[in-house]
């Protein structure tokens, strides 16, 4: 089973559209970050977490040519706005693409991207909305992946955290309830929001992400949702060996 971090940038990526690189060294290819999405592959089962605005380039760059379903963390544009790019997988598989999310996110997706779920103007619906369960099994033939899900704070809303094969994916998170910390014990990989140095109401900052990592002691921590404030080499040089900055296209055997 493999996980690919398709994108590890914050909402505007790095650089921004205005060519602003912040502290990031533009000569280092690991500083070119697209928006957060991740891809899970187990045999012929292909699962996407979030459809970023960069999803098309992310699929092409990583030579991904199939998709069975999408799990959404929340409805913000940097996690969802690539949704309409997924149409070729409806044509390829000749069945609706299953979309899994909590009720608030499904409601927002159905409103914003109504054509995907209801069709219209001569187009047919291409997606099926499904409520994500606390324990969720996705099956295709002989392959399956079991997800444990729970809510984390993401500013004024919540975001769904996904745990699968001793790997936790919390790309957008400002706080984790103390009662949920036990769900994150004994992980091989903790992939966690780490926006910038400064505190931010919607995201964890470097100091807090590190504190969580030291407390949970996963085998490896991967920092994602990285802002232009955080240069790849700076993080790589200054962090302990088991805490790594993500980069676009990072592959983990999980
Ligand atoms: Zn968000």
Can you walk me through this structure?
This protein is α/β, with parallel strands linked by helices and about 250 residues long. The protein has one domain: Metallo-beta-lactamase, Chain A (4-Layer Sandwich), CATH 3.60.15.10. It has seven helices and 14 strands. It has helices spanning about 55-60, 75-80, 85-95, 105-110, 115-120, 205-215, 230-240; strands at about 1-5, 35-40, 45-50, 70, 95-100, 125-130, 135-140, 145-155, 155-165, 165-170, 190-195, 220-225, 245, 250-254. The strands form two sheets. The protein has a seven-stranded mixed β-sheet with strand order 6-5-4-3-2-1-14. A seven-stranded mixed β-sheet has the order 7-8-9-10-11-12-13. Strand 11, helix 6 and strand 12 (about 220-225) form a beta-alpha-beta unit. The radius of gyration is 17 Å and the shape is globular. About 40% of the residues are buried. The model has no long low-confidence stretch (mean pLDDT about 95).
Helix content: 10-25%
Helical region count?
7
Which of globular, elongated, flat, extended, rod-shaped describes the shape? globular
Q: What is the count of distinct domains?
A: 1
- The separation of the N and C termini measures 6 Å
| Spatial strand arrangement across the major sheet | 6-5-4-3-2-1-14
CATH class: Alpha Beta
Please state roughly what percent of the residues sit in beta strands, choosing from under 5%, 5-15%, 15-25%, 25-35%, 35-45% or over 45%. Answer: 25-35%
Catalogue the ligands. Answer: zinc ion
What is the radius of gyration computed over CA atoms, rounded to a whole number of angstroms?
17 Å
Mean pLDDT across the residues is 97
The topology string of helices and strands comes to: EEEHEHHEHHEEEEEEHEHEE
Tally of strands: 14
The description of the largest β-sheet is: 7 strands, mixed
Enumerate the spans where pLDDT stays under 50 for 5 or more consecutive residues. Answer: none
CATH architecture type = 4-Layer Sandwich
Going by helix content, strand content and strand pairing, the class is alpha/beta
What's the CATH topology name? Metallo-beta-lactamase, Chain A
